[in-house]
Amino acid sequence: MADEDITLDGKPLQSLRVADLKAALEQRNLSKSGQKNTLVKRLKGALMLENLQKSSSSHSGLQPNSQMGEEMSQNSFIKQYLAKQQELLRQRLEREAQQDDEADESPAVPEEDDDHSDDNDSSPYVHDKNRSMLSQPSMTRVEQGGGDSLMGHRMMARGPDMGPGPNLHPQESLEAPGARMQRATFHQGHKEPPAPSPPRAVASLSVRVLGQPDRQGLPPAVPRAQEKEGTAPSEPGSAHPVLHLSRSAGGSAGGQVHEENDEDDSGDDESEDDDDWGPGPGGARRGNRAPPQSQQMPPSVPSTVARSKRKLQPPQHIPPPQAHHTPMQLRHPTPPPSPPPDLFPLPDTPKQSPPDDREGEAPEAARGPRAAPFPAPNVQGQDSDSSSRSSSPEPPVKRRPGPLSLLVHKMESEAACHAVEATSAIDMSGEKAHSSTGPASSTESPLQKLEKKRLQENREMEEEKRLKEEKEREQHQEQERQRRRLQEQEREKKRLEEEKERKRLEEEEKLRQKEEREKEQKRQEEEREKERKRQDEEKRRVENLQKEKYKGEEKASKGRVVVTKAQDSDSSSDSDSKSDSSSHSSRSSSSSQDKARPARQLKKSDQGQEAEDEKKTNLSKGAEKRYLSKREVSEPSAAAVTEVEPESESSMAQQPPSGAEPENSEGRLEESTTPKAFAARKISLTSSKTSPATTDGGAGDAETATAAGRKRRWGSSTSVTAKKPSISITTDSLKSLIPDIKVNQEAVVELHPEELQLSGDEESLDATRDDQDKGLKIRRTVTQIVPGDGQENGQTNEEEEEVEKPEKDKQRRTSRDKRKNSVSEEASETQTSVNLDGEAKKVTPSDSVVRRSISQQKSGVSVTIDDPVRTTRQPSPPHGKISNIIHVTNLVRPFTLGQLKELLNRTGSIVEDGFWIDKIKSHCFVTYATAEEAVATRAALHRVKWPMSNPKVLTVDFCEQEELDFHKGVLKPENEKDHVAQPVVPQNRLPPLMPERDRDRERGRDRDKDRERDGDRERDRGVVGVRDLWAEREREMQRRERARGEREWDRDKVQEFARPGEDGRRSRSRERERRRRERGKSKERKTDKKEKGDEPPAKLLDDLFLKTKAAPCIYWLPHTEEQAAQRLLDRTERQKERERRHKEQQEEEEKKREEEKKERLKGREKEGGSTASGAAAGRGADADRERDRGRDREGDKKRDSGHGPRRPSASASGGRRSRSRSNPRDRRR
Amino acid sequence: MALESRITQEEIKKEPEKPIDREKTCPLLLRVFTTNSGRHHRPDEFARGNVPSSELQIYTWMDATLKELTSLVKEVYPEARKKGTHFSFNIVYPDPRGKVYRLKDIGSTVSGRKGTDDSMTLQSQRFQIGDYLDIAITPPNRAPPLARMRPF
Lengths: 1229, 152
Known about the structure:
The structure holds two protein chains of two kinds.
Chain A: H1 2-5, E1 7-8, E2 11-12, H2 18-27, H3 36-57, H4 63-72, H5 76-103, H6 108-117, H7 124-144, H8 147-158, H9 164-175, H10 179-191, H11 200-210, H12 212-217, H13 221-229, H14 234-249, H15 253-266, H16 268-277, H17 280-286, H18 290-300, H19 306-317, H20 319-331, H21 355-367, H22 375-391, H23 394-398, H24 403-419, H25 422-437, H26 446-464, H27 467-475, H28 477-492, H29 494-516, H30 518-542, H31 548-566, H32 573-589, H33 598-618, H34 620-639, H35 644-672, H36 676-696, H37 698-736, H38 741-764, H39 769-785, H40 791-836, H41 843-859, E3 869-870, E4 885-889, H42 897-905, E5 916-917, E6 924-927, H43 931-941, E7 944-945, E8 955-958, H44 961-968, H45 973-981, H46 997-1022, H47 1026-1045, H48 1048-1058, H49 1062-1065, H50 1068-1092, H51 1101-1104, E9 1106-1107, E10 1115-1116, H52 1121-1170, H53 1174-1189, H54 1194-1203, H55 1207-1219, H56 1222-1228
Antiparallel strand pairs in A: 1-2, 3-7, 4-6, 4-8, 5-6, 9-10
Helix pairs in contact in A: 2-3, 3-5, 4-9, 5-6, 5-9, 5-10, 5-13, 6-13, 7-8, 7-9, 7-14, 7-15, 8-9, 8-10, 8-14, 10-21, 11-13, 11-16, 11-17, 11-18, 11-19, 11-22, 13-14, 13-18, 14-15, 14-17, 14-25, 15-16, 15-24, 16-24, 17-25, 18-19, 19-26, 19-36, 19-37, 20-22, 20-25, 20-35, 20-36, 21-25, ...
Chain B: H1 2-6, H2 9-14, E1 28-35, E2 55-60, H3 66-76, E3 86-94, E4 101-110, E5 132-138
Parallel strand pairs in B: 1-5
Antiparallel strand pairs in B: 1-2, 3-4, 3-5
């Protein structure tokens, strides 16, 4: 739009030549670099700014600033900034163009739009205010040093106004130390504009949460939002940017002042705006991040699209709760877009400052001077502000926006201003950003709910498209909204209010309960769930699937009843808001259907409440938060006479919470019982889960609420559907057995209810299951097993089932008892029959089998199996020699071991140790107690199709123990030896008559393996060395393969078979425990893997070896007896050896000593002998002395010796001795 | 089986190439010290009971090959999984004649490539339980430092 309008010397920019563009740019001290497009953009921006200046110059003394800007424009920062601004302008223009269409609804909007969007048009009013506001705050902030951030925000906010903005910014940026930071902010700001315009909701949220500072923070979004919504007056918008800047900068004091000023100026409108923009502070807290959210919001803003609002709403909702929960969120924070995490100055807050907050703050902190103020005061103030605002907006909306609310808002804003400095705003921004980005929704604080309500209401309004209402809203956003809501609510449905009241009561009850005892609440919830389950069952009985809606209502009613009982009825604003929100959500969800079905709405609302309840239960922390906030709020609210007051109260309450937040967090922590860090994490997780819904939008919230309800329904519905398959199975059996039909139906009925319960149990995971669990688990398996062949039949049966359900319980009990008996009896019958005739029985066995299955169903036996279908009437004679072991081949999945066992158990009792099935469940070996049973089984199952989906027919033949052993992998050395002997042993199993390929193949394979092994053995025995090694390796491999052969998940089953009795009885909880244990083990295994290396996954070092407790542990194994004995022997031998050696050594030494002594003695004797000749002795002494001196001197000695006649001989002898000291002695010896 | 049960470390010592039944033989704790600078630790870094900080503890057996050890190290150090990363193995053993530790080069492997030392086992290099292993990891882009600097 504007682009077209901008001309240079009457020519559209695009038509200009590059040279002209450059010249124009040069005139404006702008860079001439870049392509034509960039040049055009730059020039456009400059022109727009000029236009703005022209228009605005008359109004305010911005010119100095603008001049400054021009001077500064040479700065690279400024250039970048200008470019960004241009981009922003473009985007805004586009938006505005879109918005204008939409904005026409509200009168206020067009004005604002004009001002902001059309710079050329430049509405004096807006510009003046903006400029004045901007200039003042900017100056103050600059002084403070926080101006940079402010600048960024301003830029953001001003985008449309471009003119003054750039000038100011350059100056500030230069002055401000954190130029880089500003840049970052700018970028963000720029990003914002490209994104869809910020939605009103966001802005409102931010304002509420943060309070006045929020406005400032919001600024970027605000102007746009205002434009779009048209509700916000131009003045506040202008003020906001300034404030925002200050806050972003670190909450300079100037910001507060500005806010106050703004409020004063705006008056009633502002106050209204404050309400709407309450979120603004949140935006400020978010700082850089806030803008993106706002961007998203704007597009939706246009009244036309409810969805967009929904989407936008979530962010709004999120921020306030986050503010409350900040500690939690901070820790968890989803990483915000913001930059590097700096120190978080929030030591006071119990929250462990999350990275997000840090990040958000970091930029601000980096800016410098501002960072210092942030810390403690900021946190509390922010929290309080956010809480107060967030809480305040909601209640007023619904109830009464009157003058009181305005006053309250003002008071709050002022208080917030004083209490909360810009620093706090910064902190908040960080938090908000986190929340907005992150999962804050999980702990949906009342604020969120309130926001949701608002959003919903807004949606409704839009839907109605009442221009008047819209105008009013825009002008008096929240107040009007509240009024409208009230009006609408009253008009449309007083029911909603009633529901709300109920909800409130419920919520209050919940709150109290939680406060009093969270545990109690949990219990209640569990009870509720139980009740629901029961109700579901009842419903199923009485109602058809089509009446599911009624079920939901019933559930809701039950929930209500529970709640009402507990009601203490402190009408807390939060509860109200919640109720409102829930109702709204329900409405929104069924926006089109609002009027259609009151009952539905009730359901939805109830469901929403339920969902909320669930959330609470799930997220105890979130619930606690709510409670805390509610408590605080509730007290004041109770005291408050007017509805408006609740807002103020809530705000007040929230403020205390900010102080109390630490406490809350602590409480949460305590509840969680996990360390703080963990708790925080958990919270974040939960929040993340919930957040997605909230983030999705207001609609998302409503949907989530409904979704929770739906889940319930789904569970029930799924359970219903699940019934069908089981029924179908039964029907099949029925079809096959005409006479038994009635019985079958009963059985079916029993199965279904249980299944339903199961489904419910799964969802709720309550203690209630325990009763049902015993039977249930098995049934479950049954359902899985059964193919959904006859759904139609199942449906028809359902009604019957429902009617019969009451009887189920009795039947169940009796059936269990009966079951065993019936099975055993039938089995015995079949066995006997089999014994009587070999082939004649063929037909009968099948029948008996079928009957059995039916009877089992009647009895409530857990396992249902496809009835084997006989393809051929006459089974071929057995190939192997009759034994008590049978080999069943051609098994085809799907079937479970349990089913197979059930099938096999029909005709006899399986010896658990003698059962083996290969890992793909294609064939199995079964050992029966007696050969007769094996024969009966073969008669029953040979040439039978089982399970139903099996394209092949089972073949059953007898086999020998060795084969089984071999397959069991038991092949111990002894067994292997046996195998070697096998060939000699007559093989009964070999099929003399009709070779069954599969079996032969199997056997052939086995035999080959055996041969290999035998060969290995022989090699091992015969040859030692390399071959041996290879054999060892091979064996090792085989062993490992065997270990792998058993899949881990089948191992348990196999073990289960080992203890036949326990299978059915095992309770689910036990199984779960075991699973958990296994999971833990698996983790351990993973960690161990590193250490183990190539260890086959199946076996762990810990399984194979003992280990020391000291870390790092050392693995060890006790020696076998033999080894121990051997070791002992060795040791003793070694000791003996050692002793012997020792003795020898000693002896030698003694000898040496003796010899030495002798030598000495000899030497003395010699000396003594030579004493007669003193000369000789003297010579000897001389010689010794010389020896001591060392060999080096020998030469000298020789020389010396040359002097005296005697000496030569003596020296010669001495030298000789010294040279070969030891040798001469040895010789002597 | 019976044969396997007989296999013990004593046997291993006697017959270094005899395969080890890893399910019967207790694993030894191998303390591995790694560097990613391409150079090995200095012997004095092991002196007086000190050890470098970059320790991996691996339970393995005497028949563990360098390749196997490499794979274990790669499990722990993702950056070492890059193709071409060079692992140089040194056994760190106390000098019997003094209190000093000595490093003995036993070979090297390169991830993603086959090498002659891949199948080299600890026991083939006279590794004794209690010795350390020092592995110098060299990122792929850098040439293996000292790879064959020493002529012997």
